[in-house]
Amino acid sequence: MIKEQKKPIIVAISGGFDPIHIGHVRYMHEAKKLGNILVVILNNDNWLKLKKGHAFMPQDERKEVLESIACVDRVILSSHEEGTADYSVCADLRALKPDIFANGGDRKPDDVPVPEVAVCDELGIQMVYNVGAGGKVQSSSWLEEKCKEQVFIDSRVIRQPADENDTHGMPKKILTLCIFHDQKNARVLLGMKKRGFGANRWNGFGGKVEGGETIEEAAIRECSEEIGVEVQKMDTVGVLNFEFSDGKILEVRLFKVSEFSGEPQESEEMKPQWFSLADIPYTHMWPDDIYWLPHVLYGKQIQGKFLFDESDVIQDYSLEIE
Ligand code: 6OG
Q1: pLDDT digit string (tens) for 73-89?
Q2: 152-321, what's its fold?
Q3: How far is the CA of 301 from the centre of ligand 1 (A)?
Q4: Domain 10-142 has CATH 3.40.50.620
Q5: What is the pLDDT of residues 126-182, one digit of tens each?
Q6: Burial class, 122, CB count within 10 angstroms (exposed 0-12 / middle 13-18 / buried 19+)
Q7: Which ligand 1 atom is the nearest neighbour of the CA of 242?
């Protein structure tokens, strides 16, 4: 009697993995559980040039690293040609025809379905979303940005940061900063500061605490003034101390807003915009943000101190993460 062999279930995932990090590894382990064979469609160097202008690690090295991971059965390089404008892996899915395509979201930030949706529909490939859910724990671009900052800091003379209570006679100002995190849609609301301190940078919403109000009241008022929304639920997520070369010291109390009413509106001070967690514009934000914001978005409490030079470059910092 011929024993009926069950056809193995092929699960495909795709990505640049440049460089690979803990979030990728968790995602792979979860994806493998959906079937029997895990195939990684590895975006080649041409795709990375389109995505971010360069490959941090060459494709052959990325491939070898992935192949050495126990749950990965096969790695295929994507077929993107030089000068490609194609962000998708549709051609590779067509060639591979897996049973399952396990990949992040099904929509771009502008709510247009990703092109893979149509190909998977056509070929009967099941699309599975939110594999390894639990938020974005790490990101290749965050790692690269942090690495660039670190190289820069290490090459400078490090000054001792001011003692916590030594404000050199300068009054320490207390400010608020609210991060709007829409966990369900994996996005964050930032505002382009149009004037004053921090102009031309994306940031959260907040400002000075005025006489007679609590810090929380100040945070809620600023959100209303800057983007016309009413905060309904927010949590304290930490405190940051900033010291500038002119001796100015700011203590910024951080809040994470999870519920609010009203549609964010542009004001004279701020132009709001949602960013997917993968596309937070760290290079156009205060340089400290890349150090602490990922932890806050991951649900951690933080406490940090940053010392800036006259060009707002970080000279020294310390960060505690709960
Ligand atoms: P107004 O001047 O608009 O309040 N803030 C900072 N935010 C980040 N992410 N990094 C910094 O590094 C910051 N320094 C100040 C606090 C200024 C707003 O900018 C925040 C306030 O929300 C130096 O009233």
Answers
A1: 999 999 999 988 888 99
A2: Nucleoside Triphosphate Pyrophosphohydrolase (3.90.79)
A3: 18
A4: yes
A5: 999 877 655 566 777 777 776 665 554 443 333 333 344 444 455 678 999 999 999
A6: exposed
A7: 23
